[in-house]
Structures are given as structure tokens and as C-alpha cells.
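User: For a reading group we're discussing how well predicted structures match intuition. Take EGF-like domain-containing protein. Before you show the prediction, I'll give you the sequence so everyone sees exactly what went in.
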Amino acid sequence: MESPGLCDGQGVCENTLGSYKCICQPGYRGNGTHCEDENECASGSHRCDTNARCGNIIGSYFCQCYQGFNGDGHACFDVDECLRNNGYCEHNCTNELGAYSCQCAAGYQLDQGGHNCTDVDECSAPNGTCEHICINTMGSFQCSCKPGYQLHIDGHTCVDIDECKLQNGGCSHTCSNSPGGFTCHCLRPLLLDTDNLTCSNATSCKLRNGGCDHVCSLRAEGDIQCSCRAAWKLGDDLKSCVDVNECGDFTNGGCEQLCVNLPGGFNCTCREGHEVRTDDPTRCRPVCDPPCQNYGVCVGPNSCDCPPGYPGVGCS
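Assistant: Thanks. Here is the predicted 3D structure of EGF-like domain-containing protein, as C-alpha cells, for the group to look at:
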């Protein structure tokens, strides 16, 4: 005999032999007389897929697949986002479990949005991609070299071109190679013409100063004569100028102590403890530190001749 009022709330009355008992409806728990909602998501009694979210409701629960998965929540299947418009990736799309990611081709980098690719400027790298000149291109770069060099097979290094091996560099006489270029040379008395290739006789001072280092003049006979500025002397080739060593003879350049030869001149200096006099740059005077006081006179390095009554250091 059914008596619905015997079991309270969500309890259901179940007849037994000679009696009855109350049990809770599915989704509830208790002794049957008193029933409360069972949180299937917390107890783990739900049947949601591992890739689904469990949501508790009064007397039951629901399952919802995570983003990136399709299904009824009890069975969820991965969605391949790359099948639709390449996942909106500009270059390459890789499907992952419940997600996907975009990748860029070599020479490009993924922007902050994670979909578009921007060119990498390899030429801005601090380690120097090319030895000489770097030209950035979309997705790559190219190396080039300065004049007088050619690009190595490695595409990065620059190798000097030996111009002298190709028709003597165009020189009429001697050719010498140099990094990035070459130079033509002539045997005296020939001079290198204005084309820097041909050797010709010097007939005036207009062509490379007649081959003279310093002063070029034309004799009455039409010959070129070279001379040198002061403190220089004409070399054995009668063209070049050689520095005169003023300190080399017995006069020591007129210096009281030390003489230092310079190209086209010389300087007088002093030994340690002395300095050059301001009134006569060829002579030296001793230096006292501290300086002599109270009318004392510096007579040697750190040596003062002091007046009576001032025997201290520096005539103090």
C-alpha cells in the first residue's frame, strides 16, 4: 500500500514484506527519511569524460567538453583546428590535444597575436651575419663585399681579389696587390702617370711633383732637380728626402742634457729631477718638491740652499 507522506522530502517509499522503507532518489543521499543533494562532481561518482567539465545541479549533474573538444560531455573528441582555414595561421599550423599552435617558416618570427609572421632582420644581429655588407630580404638575407673583394662560397666571408694576377692589373710595369686593391710601380726615373697605370718620363714638376719628395724645380737644361726642406737632406736617389739627425753630432743639437730627434726637427729634454727652462728651451734647471721657501734657492733635485735659521724641508 502506498503512503507518499511517510517519507520526507526526496525520499521514496519502498514496500517490503510486512513493512516498508524509505530510500533517497537518484542524485540525493541520506537515510531515506531525510535526503540532501549529492555533489557528484565532488564525490567522483559522475561519468564525465576526462576532457570535460563537471557541473553539479540539484539532484543531478551535467558534463561539458573543454574548449578544443567536441562531444556530449560523457565522450569528448579533440577538434583539429588546423582543418579550418589552417587555424588562421599565416604559415604553419600544428594540432595539439585540445589546442593548436602556429609556427613560422625560417627567417620569420611569430608576432604577439600568435598567428601572423613577421620578417626577421638578420642584418641587425650584433654578431655580424656578413663580413662586409648585409642586405636583408623577406625571410632571408644576402651578403655582398666591398670593391676589390669577392664573396666566398660560404656566402658570408669576403676574399681579396688579386688584381695583379689578371693582366698585371693593367699596370705597364710592376703591380703589387693590396687588401681590396692594387698599386702600380715604376722604375726610376719613370713616374706613374695620372691614370695610375702607365709609367712615363718625368718632363715637368706637374706630374707627381717630378718624383720629388719635397721641392721640385726645373733646370735651364730642362732637367728636373729635387731639393729638401730644412732639417732634411736629399737621398742617394736624388728624389727622396731623409731626416737629418740633429742629435747625432758632438753638439748634441745644442741641448744641455738630452736631445730627442724628430722627423724634420728635434727637441731638448732634461734628465729626471730637472725641467726645461722657460727662458731657454735648450737648458735645464733642477726641480724641488716641495718648492724652496723663505728665499731659499733650488740648487739640485729636491735640494734647497736655505738661508740661516730655516733648516727644515723646503727651507721651512
